[in-house]
Amino acid sequence: MIDAGPVLARRQRRLVALVQVFALAVWFSMSAVVPSLRAEWGISSAAAVCMASWAGSAGRGRALGLLVAALSVGSLLPHLIAGFGPLPWQTVMGVAAGIGTLGAAVSLAFVRPGPHLRASAPTRNAAYGLTMFTQRGPRLATLGYLGHMWELYALWTWIPAFLLAVPSGFGSGTAVAVIADSGVFSTSLSEVADPRFVGTALAAQTAFGFLLTVVSIQLVAVLADGVGWQYAFLLLAPGPVVGAIAMRRFGRPA
To answer: N or C: which terminus of the chain has fewer CB atoms within 10 Å of its end residue's CB?
Structure first.
């Protein structure tokens, strides 16, 4: 723990966000070079596939929103790199990896634990990642997040292919709009989870969410190959519906 004023706290939150931008440069580097890889390797669409310690409870939503915004910018970086092209896919992947390494260096050199981190050693209870589902609040917050994740990364991964296949431009603004509620789920879980195991709860929520994206990303590609891109994204609609129902129940008294 270190003592810090508002200026230092803001600086640290920005550094954490900057690290995430740099680290996430590698996240969508594969989808940024998919057209080149498909042409060169002859693959199908189906085969192509912290912060809280510097913010109190009142400002946690804003801080996590900043982190999600940084995640979005970092996810966009490979496409910005590819936009300087035409560049070989090896170049895009190499630059993205270098930026990710820079993110690790910034984190090691400058990011420090904030004053809201508990002074005592954290209680270890990995099982809480599963037992939290027996508690109403964490269960609903996580279900909301899972519904959101079912849609989010499949959309981000395949929106370039969709726009190329459907040149009308329909849906071009969706990839910006779909991220807006990302920070709500993590903030909600941090407020209702057992205070001793908030880190475990957030880690489990994220792990289950990203595991689910593996399924939705692959299924969209399979569906696109079968019925076309104009129908493939319909597969993602149930996720936000389930998430909205869960969060509606979350907001009501038990």
So the answer is: C
Q: Is the pLDDT of residue 126 over 50?
A: yes
pTM of the predicted protein model: 0.63
Rounded CA-CA distance 144/215 in Å is: 17
Using alpha carbons, select from 202, 206, 205, 234 the residue that is nearest to residue 220: 234
**Buried b or exposed e, range 168-199, using 16+ CB within 10 angstroms:** eeeeeeebeebbebbbbbbbbbbebbeeebbb
Residue 135 has pLDDT above 80, yes or no: yes
Top-confidence residue, 116 or 176: 176
- Residue 45 CB coordination number (10 Å): 20
Residue 142's nearest CA partner among 151, 133, 134, 150 is 133
Which amino acid is residue 202, in one-letter code?
A: L
The closest of 218, 237, 97 to 174, measured between CA atoms, is 237
Domain residues of the chain, as ranges? 1-116, 126-254
